[in-house]
Write a structure and sequence with these properties.
heterodimer; A: alpha/beta; 5-stranded mixed β-barrel; elongated; B: Lipocalin; 2 helices; globular
């Protein structure tokens, strides 16, 4: 009798283990995308500062900023809409400034905040820094 | 001071000479596919920067690794942290890799087939140059379809790479899910470069 009882307990533990394991795997496999808009910016700085950090030592700046949530502020020099409907705001310099990309879904969600941001005005964007090509790219941005 | 003046003079000369010959875009599309019957693995970036100089047929192309988007967030994480190591902190990399720039992939080369930039007909051209992925540089020759034009140049290219060639380690647990060869597709529309 006692044997059957132990067996039952073991069986239950085993079953619960499987359910927990499978759901954990399922969650990890389908984990939600990182939402930078809900994160606190690790660095808040002027676009000019970010540009000078990268120009001074690209390797060190890349290590410092890559994949981090940052908030940058600067004069908007150009605004472009890409084929996939995301928008790119270039701060301080069109070629060698800071390019902030807003994904299409966030363009729609933040339409009222984006409306006053015209060429020549000052914009503040929070996003994830990807590093530098000619310009410094900040992706998954939202306007502040 | 003399050096500074020389630098300014040189850059002025270079800029004036090169201004009309260069075509440029910051919004080139690049996607890759390493799907197997077990798993669809497709990623795309819309933010590659590329430049063509029609005076000497030189082409340069670069893209930041973390701008690639996948269907699943988990794939993006594995891609950047484990395979390409673009978001992996320098301290946790192998000693030999500490100084390498894993944040971008680059191509620098030359169109080696004859090409008439004045015609507006599409041509298939060979482009030969150095491809750098994951800090490893290899010489490659790609076939590109190029459509010249006065106000814009369109170019596409498709080629395959083997991740192992670029020291990209794929754990045996997922080997069956990731294709041995990765197909890369490039799609760029260049406009005259004005500064």
């Amino acid at each position: 009798m006692a044997k059957i009882k132990t067996f039952r307990i073991i069986l239950w533990i085993f079953l619960i283990g499987i359910v927990v394991g499978v759901s954990a795997l399922y969650y990890v496999f389908n984990m939600p995308r990182r939402d930078v808009s809900k994160e606190k910016a690790l660095y808040t700085l002027d676009a000019k500062q970010l540009i000078s950090d990268f120009k001074k030592d690209e390797s060190a700046a890349t290590a410092k900023y890559i994949d981090k949530a940052i908030m940058v502020k600067g004069e908007i020099k150009s605004i472009r809409t890409l084929d996939n409907h995301s928008m790119v705001f270039s701060l301080e310099d069109e070629m060698e400034g800071v390019s902030c990309t807003i994904d299409s879904a966030d363009v729609v969600a933040n339409a009222s905040k984006l409306a006053p941001l015209t060429k020549g005005s000052t914009g503040t964007f929070k996003g994830r820094c990807s590093g530098m090509l000619m310009d410094i790219q900040v992706i998954n941005c939202v306007p502040e | 001071m003399n050096k500074l003046i020389l630098c300014i003079a040189l850059s002025l000369i270079l800029f004036n000479a090169g201004a009309q010959n260069r075509y440029f875009t910051k919004d080139a599309k690049i996607n890759f596919n390493s799907s197997t019957p077990l798993e669809d693995i497709i990623a795309e970036s819309n933010q590659a920067t590329t430049i063509i100089d029609v005076a000497n047929n030189e082409v340069a192309f670069s893209v930041l690794i973390t701008t690639f988007k996948f269907r699943r967030a988990l794939m993006e994480e594995h891609f950047n942290e484990n395979y390409m190591e673009s978001s992996k902190p320098k301290e946790s990399r192998d000693a030999a890799d500490k100084m390498k720039d894993f944040s971008k992939a680059k191509f620098k080369g030359k169109i080696i087939s004859p090409i008439d930039w004045k015609s507006e007909k599409q041509v298939v051209a060979d482009v030969k140059g150095d491809l750098t992925i994951h800090g490893v540089t290899k010489e490659v020759t790609l076939k590109a379809q190029i459509t010249p034009g006065k106000n814009k140049i369109a170019a596409t290219a498709e080629f395959k790479i083997i991740p192992q060639d670029y020291n990209i380690a794929i754990p045996s647990a997922v080997k069956g899910k990731i294709a041995k060869e990765v197909t890369i597709l490039i799609d760029a529309v260049y406009t005259p470069y004005q500064q």
